[in-house]
Amino acid sequence: MSGTEAVTATRRAIDTLALLLVMLAIWEVLHRIAGETALPAPIETLSYLIRTVPTPRFAENAAATAEAFVFALILAYGMGLAIGIWMGAHRLSGAVGEPILVVLYSLPKITLYPVVLLIFGLGISGKVAFGAMHGVLPVALLTMGAIRAIPPVYLRAARTLHLSPWQIIVTVLLPAALPEVFTGLRIGFTVTLLGVLLGEMFASKAGLGAMVMNAMSLAQSQEMVTVAIVLFAFAAIANALLFRIEHRLHRRVRD
Amino acid sequence: MTRVGLIRLVVIAALIGALELACRTGLIDHRVVIAPSEMASALMALLASGSINADIERTLGVIAVVIALSIALGFAAGVIIHALPRLREALDPFFATYYAVPVFIFYPVLIAIFGLSPIPIVLIGVATAIVAMIIATLNGLDRVPRVLIKVARVHRLGRLATALTLQLPAAAPYLFTGIKLSVSYGFIAVIAAEFILSPAGLGRDISDAYTDFNNRRMYALILFLLIIATVVNAGLHALDMRFAERRGGART
Amino acid sequence: MPAAVHRDLHAQFAGVTRVYPGAGDHPEVHALGPIDLELRKGEFFAVVGPSGCGKSTFLEILAGLQRPTAGTVTFEGMAVSGVVAEGIGVVFQEDASFPWLTVWDNAAFGLRRSGVAEPELRRRVDDALAFMGLKDFARAYPSQLSGGMRQRVCIARTLVLQPRLILLDEPFGALDAQTRLLMGDEVLRLWRQTGATVLLITHALDEAAMLADRIGAMSARPGRFIEIIETGWSRQRDSTIVAEPAFGEITGRLWERLRGESLKALGHPGMAQPPAALAAE
User: Fold this and answer.
1) Closest-CA residue to B147 (of C157, C128, C268)
2) Residue A143 belongs to a domain with what CATH number?
């Protein structure tokens, strides 16, 4: 990194830090206005967080959410990729199905959660199904887009190289489609997590979402904000990592 | 209607038909899912009785307020941030991560602060939708071709005239995408909030019907919400597609 | 500012240089000058030179879109500063037609805020569109037209304002060769009928040789005029003059002067364009 680039980067980091400090200051001000029970002070919340996160109670809830989340993610990714590849490769199915998927994506799926609960019951399966319902759509849509966007000349070139269909898929189509597919996986990660949390907030006794609702009913605002902060940190870091990988994939394809 | 559109209609009809058949033959237990025809008739009865009118007004009213605020404030914020590049750079990581984190988890905190009123619902709705509008505004203003700004100077237009007669129409297709997203997110956030905890509204109605084992009422309300959300979102999407020609194709 | 020395003087450059200040990683760039030039009223002046020599910078300074770092520019006796003077029209290389307006509304755009009465406005717009052969497309949108026609819309929009100095910044750069020749005829027709002074920037030697009364050959960066060639063509010329022996002589002469400059432009390591952010001031 050259001299002036380093200066710019440092300045940006300072700006962002300054912004964070401003946000903390606003938090403190709002705390003064809203009162202790409604919105806790930043420093007390931080100490509460440090005390609570290592406890077994927190670990159990986090594990419950994590379990549902992982299963939901596997389902969302698996079904999403399958649907996306099929609709991307088969033009007619894609043309017919895409608007349906797009509309489903924009619907408030929580409306269907009671149906999910009726079908799957109140246990973990309901949360998994609900989370997967959320995640499958962006994965499918973006995978479909990625397959469609493969320049036809790649296929022509591949055929002139006398590759078998399987080889074409693995060595040409997949690498070409991977960056955009990965975008779908990243967005799917986010919405699946949201789906699982929504499910827990509505009807569950275990998990971080339920923990927040429980804390609300007991007016434990520090607990609510703590869980929110932990979730934000997890989601932000995971998203940043996935985005790094996605960026590398994009650069590779373009070069 | 195009051939593809026709096929799509047939597919949807077939799926609904299959569900109807499965319900009527008892393949699907009616305590889990009721037949679509029954859903429809239950909905008609509900609407005719007028008993849910207050809740319809409440939910749609809150959604409308959320959308209006998100679009107006989001656009204004976007314009301001676009004019201050240093602020924009500082905010960039914030915007990039915003939709990666479950902002909705703050809804209970808002209830703790503001109590059980429409206010926390409006706040969480705006919090969810506004950033989409800000990002779309920034994107749209970025995409105004630089040559148009030069043309504005050749015609000696002032800053306000340039903004209104050139930048705004040039950015319009991207702004519309922001509007479309704000509407969609507004719907999702408000209804989710009503489900989780709310004194009134269609979401609360469905939640109550579920806990009361009143399937007919529950499915009628679900159908109603789905129809409204579908019509609004699909309509905006169709409009957005028309704008898409201007976004991607026109300049070659 | 003192009045024009030469009675036919329309615009003047005196000791004009343009230096782009350094920013971040980029060192400062001496893009243009010093330039000394007198533009005569009603003449057709072309500027040719290798890529990146500063021709567009030259045009933008004359238009008032950029300020010179040193020297003075005058138009009709008045100093040119950061505002585009009334009476100057500019056509850019990029497509600047507004996709959300019809061809007619595009052309009318500049006139709408000048307070001209409606019947007069309509007459001028109709005339300009007819002049550019766009009468049948008045209700169409630019996205429905070809690149060449969209440039004509931009020219019509400029014409409506009846400018006395018309600046054309490589307006046909994006068009194919045959269309360029035809557009050249259009520009000549336009020049004759409006009686305006025309300044054309181009990298195509044959285009300059065919269209201009005088051609300024510009060196590689920093751009300076190494020669001004008088073509001596009659005002009634058109694209058929490419067959004249004089045409070949002029293009030959231009290439003789510019070949070395073009090599410099290709080989010189510091020939990158200035950062885009600095170019618009």
Assistant:
1) C157
2) 1.10.3720.10
E strand map for C211-278: 214-218, 225-230
What is the β-pairing status of strands C165-169 and C88-91? Answer: parallel
Torsions phi, psi for A141 (to 5 deg): -65, -45
Q: In what order do the strands lie in the sheet with C78-79?
A: C29-40, C9-20, C70-75, C78-79
- Does residue C239 register a pLDDT over 90? no
Helix (H) or strand (E) holding C73: strand C70-75
Domain match, A75 and A158 both: yes
Mean pLDDT of B83-89: 91
A132 and A169, same structural domain?
Answer: yes
Number of structural domains found in chain A: 2
- Two tokens, residue B131: 């950033």
How does A120-158 read in b/e, with b if 16+ C-beta sit within 10 Å? beeebebbbbbbbbbbbbbbbbbbbbbbbebeeeeeeeb
The architecture CATH gives domain B57-249: Orthogonal Bundle (1.10)
pLDDT at B64 over 70: yes
Closest by CA to B192, choosing from A229, A213, C239, is A213
pLDDT tens across B102-126, in order? 999 999 999 988 888 999 999 999 9
Question: Hey, where are the domains in chain B?
Answer: 57-249
Distance from CA of C270 to the nearest CA of A (A): 18
Residues A63 and A107 in one domain: yes
d(C-alpha A126, C-alpha A118), whole Å? 9
Q: Is residue A94 domain-shared with residue A146, that is, in the same domain?
A: yes
What are the DSSP E strand ranges found in C83-203? 88-91, 165-169, 197-202
Q: Is C96–B149 a contact, with Cβ atoms under 8 angstroms apart?
A: no
CB-based contact A31:A41 (threshold 8 Å): yes
Nearest CB to B108; choose among A16, A95, A213: A213
Q: A166-189, pLDDT tens digit by residue?
A: 777 777 777 888 989 999 999 999
Per the structure, the complete domain to which residue A192 belongs is given by: 38-254
Please answer whether residues B200 and B56 qualify as being in contact, where contact means their C-beta atoms are separated by less than 8 angstroms. no
A221 touches chain B (CB under 8 A): yes
Is A171 an interface residue toward B (CB < 8 Å)?
no
Residue C142 forms contact with B (CB below 8 Å): yes
Pairing of the two strands C225-230 and C214-218: antiparallel
Closest CA to A225 of A34, A15, A86: A34
Query: Which is the CATH superfamily of the domain at C41-65+80-87+163-281?
Result: P-loop containing nucleotide triphosphate hydrolases (3.40.50.300)
* pLDDT of B242 strictly over 60: yes
> What 8-state DSSP symbol labels residue B248?
I
Is A44 found in the same domain as A30?
A: no
Domain residue spans of chain C:
41-65+80-87+163-281, 97-161
Long-range contacts of A10-15 (CB under 8 A, 24+ apart): A12/B89, A12/B90, A15/B86, A15/B89, A15/B90
Q: Chain C within 8 Å of B88 (Cβ-Cβ)?
A: no
Contact C83/B170, CB-based, under 8 Å? Answer: no
CB atoms under 10 Å from CB of B15, counted, come to 12
CA distances from A241 to A111, A236, B41 (A): 32, 9, 50
Give B238 to chain C, closest Cα distance, Å.
18
ipTM of model: 0.87
Distance to chain C for A124, nearest Cα, Å? 53
pTM for this predicted structure: 0.82
Q: H or E segment at C175?
A: none
